[in-house]
């Protein structure tokens, strides 16, 4: 009989998750029935959205929710041949049997590491691409400000804007990230909002104003950007992390949008299915040409998923946090 | 020699303007030279924007700035024949000589009072029309919330939305205005935000949510609306009067726009020249059919302009405040 392993939540974390909140559990795995298949997990994505689930709808003593990439090892579904690479949301399981719901075929480019399909060529990539180009209606040569510019979405936004011939300023929370933005990602200026006065630093970095502010933060970041928006400026709103859970600074300067005819517009990753083909084509060629840089922290071994989760919440990752399960 | 009269500011008001801050001054008026004409003022518009000017760029001992409608009485400009009705921004002068700059020909509908060209068929009308239909992208049958719904802009917005088959809820600041909105303007519900808890009253009045919130107020009004916006909702931002001068409540609930894909967009009256012909045609027929109701407070006599200004700032007007200079 085949077996699998699962990462279980065995106790709801009190604040920061600890190793004994999780368990690696071995379980039998049945053979796939008619219309089913077995998928071996290859890489698992570790994401910030998981933390609130641990205190909410994540069941105890079941596999953690989550997404990843896998390979079909047994198949009773003709459209998923053995050996096919798939994208799935089947959770933290070493292998699993599925009828194909929530699983999609991936045709990965052999010239790229598979892991990029979990960030630059995945959900964070199309969020950046659709948010900047469609919602932000970016035009060549514009002045662009990106908050959390070293993050998974922000770093792609900033580099797409550079590819499109824009002048790009980013904000981030450490001097190491400022260096990465300037030296690797090629931004024109970067602000450490934890050590610099944001409003003054932004005004100095963007003396001719802002055409597009890619919003991930809200609060004081938004107020600082609002004072600098140009007439006809756009603010695609991807997130307002500073204001979640009722915290953060409120916004006082919204009336700036009237005479400047500024547009704020909210969106989510799933708003851009019509852009997907063009996104995959553009992003694949940009990655292969080295025009989009990224950072990954990859832990080797299924059983290290709890370590990856804890590391993510403690900020020990650089860029996307991933668990490699098999090659 | 012809004479004219002008309303002068003779002292900058300390708080609320008083009668002796103004003077009615008689002055000689020269004959129009080559390429010039004389215009007799017929109706003058009295507007809230004038107050800050009295403490700012309004010169002392000169005619007050302002707009109105006049009739050409002497003309050396063929495109402005004697008897033509014109729209002008020539200030509070009984008659004046002009080379035509800032003056435009008006072709008023004989079935309508001339005064409507200073509100429903003027700047406030096209602000409402363009803001609701173009910026708000209003669709038939939608749920619409209008703040300051009894005001010059808001009352037109609310009634256009009713004409377009929408369900319309308005907020206003007195029970008299609530009655006017329900009984005259035909709104589906109206909230007195000074006596009712706005957020709860709005949630009760709009149980299925808001498609379009026409924003004139900001602060607590915006926060209340944000909690009720439907997916794909639009917030055309015409004004945020509660937040001017740094006062009013800050906004805390902006992150509601993300998952609901809400758009906020600022605009001003002059953004819609491409809509002007359609606006004049639609609004003329709506007014003649009695589908757009309005309120006016008309003081008779040029010399009563100071009384009109003071009355406006003391809130003694119902609807648009006007001074009739001549018939």
Short structural summary:
In chain A, helix 2 (123-135) crosses helix 3 (152-163). Helices cover 24% and strands 27% of the residues of chain A.
CATH fold descriptor of the largest domain in chain A: Rossmann fold
CATH architecture of the largest domain in chain A: 3-Layer(aba) Sandwich
CATH class of the largest domain in chain A: Alpha Beta
Number of helices of chain A: 9
- Write out the CATH superfamily name of the largest domain in chain A: NAD(P)-binding Rossmann-like Domain
Q: What assembly state would you assign to the polypeptide chains in this entry?
A: homodimer
Helix content of chain A: 10-25%
Shape of chain A: globular
Low-pLDDT stretches of chain A are none
Radius of gyration of chain A: 21 Å
Main β-sheet description of chain A: 7 strands, mixed
Most extensive interface, chain pair and sizes: A-B, 27 and 27 residues
Q: What is the average of the pLDDT values of chain A?
A: 94
Structural class of chain A: alpha/beta
Number of strands of chain A: 15
Give a verbal description of the structure.
Two copies of one chain form a homodimer. Chain A has 327 residues and is of the alpha/beta class. Chain A has two domains: 2-119 and 295-324, Medium-chain alcohol dehydrogenases, catalytic domain (Quinone Oxidoreductase, Chain A, domain 1, Alpha-Beta Complex), CATH 3.90.180.10; 123-271, 3-Layer(aba) Sandwich (Rossmann fold), CATH 3.40.50.720. Helices cover 24% and strands 27% of the residues of chain A. Chain A has nine helices and 15 strands. In chain A, the strands form three sheets. In chain A, strands 3, 4, 5, 6, 7, 14 and 15 form a seven-stranded mixed beta sheet that branches. In chain A, strands 10-9-8-11-12-13 form a six-stranded parallel beta sheet, sandwiched between helices. In chain A, strand 11, helix 6 and strand 12 form a beta-alpha-beta unit. In chain A, helix 5 (198-205) runs parallel beside helix 6. The longest helix of chain A is centred in the middle third of the chain and has 13 residues, at 123-135. The model of chain A has no long low-confidence stretch (mean pLDDT 94). Chain A binds chain B through residues 218, 222, 237-240, 243-244, 246, 250-252, 254-255, 257-268, 271, and chain B through 218, 222, 237-240, 243-244, 246, 250-252, 254-255, 257-268, 271.
